Description:
The chain has 4 helices and 18 strands. By secondary structure, it is an alpha+beta fold. Strand 10 (236-238) and strand 11 (247-255) form a beta hairpin. The longest helix is centred in the middle third of the chain and has 32 residues, at 197-228. The protein is globular. The mean pLDDT is 95.
Amino acid sequence: MTARLPSWSEFLELLKPAEALVGLTFDPQSEQLRAELYRQLLMNLSLGYFLYFQADADHPDWAPFLNSVFLLQPNPDDTYLLAPVRGDAVYRVAGNRGTVKVLTFSTGANMMGMADAPGRNFGYFDADELTVGPNGELDVLFSAERPAGYQGDWLPLHPDTEFIMVRNRAYAWGDEREASLAIERIGASPLKPRLSIGQIDGRIRELLGGFTQRLSRLWLNYQNAALKRGLINKIELADFGGAVPAQAYWQGIFRLAADEALILETTLPARHRYWNVQLNDELWNAVEFIQRQSSLNGHQARIDADGRFRAVISLEDPGVPNWLDPAGTLQGMIIGRWYEADTLPIPTLTTVPFKDLRRHLPPETPRVTTAERAEQLRTRRIGGQLRRRW
């Protein structure tokens, strides 16, 4: 007997409860935030299709995850790839490391949005600890145990593993080349079977009635918790559950008026492999970072003569190199990362009148002209597009 597939209108009913998420935003009465929440839900749908329908653990493939158009708080310097796997199977990942600053693999279960329970992280591996050939060649097996007699690179899979994630982390956007990788399950049937009615039904239900709402709810609740802790224009060290063990996060809520500026200031760790800072909007989306300078990393930023990093958050271009552009957002979250750092400085945020900004910056702070800013943004825009992976 053929299973009954619900009508399309019945499936769409699963999306209706998402309307209630408006009540979790910083301002439930804001029509702008309501519109942007609707956009975010569509974004979640487009991301979720890849996760639920592109591949499975027997016939894996890399799905674009949190990249560029999927703005629910990716690191602007990272492009992410996600492949479904099983902890009791053997997988081969082969290709080319590329030249990105950092290339890593991580394994886990309960990817955010795909389960009610928090995600589980099992392993985090740096590609530079593997054997990389003279032209960047890379070939590694993932399995619960090293296959008998196998002498090549091998990384362990926890029995409960559900995914392998790749992070391509670039410093010099467009100059560095992302890894080119393929994944296959060893011993799987060479033919990927057609999905049954029941499988399609179940995945549509999970995507519309689960993932799309869960992903937004997770981060709206996260922001509200930060607000309750009084983090307005304050910074704290943060814990994201050990997803990246080599990395420490810092975070806060920025809030300013249209005629104000916020000065972000920090020392830098004496030893570190990577650092960055980014702005998120009121819905935890990364503020547009291809077309606007809403993030800076250690390669892009200008460091002052005293060794400190100073950046300015303001609606209007302040004419300084380290402008963090909130793209019209007067409130959101600021996230930073110290990677393989010997110390973990906690930055400060200082509110000043925009018209008096220069009085609060070192006198040697350069003045960025309109033409120089246009060129800075052009370099960023082209570099961002060259490294994008959909």
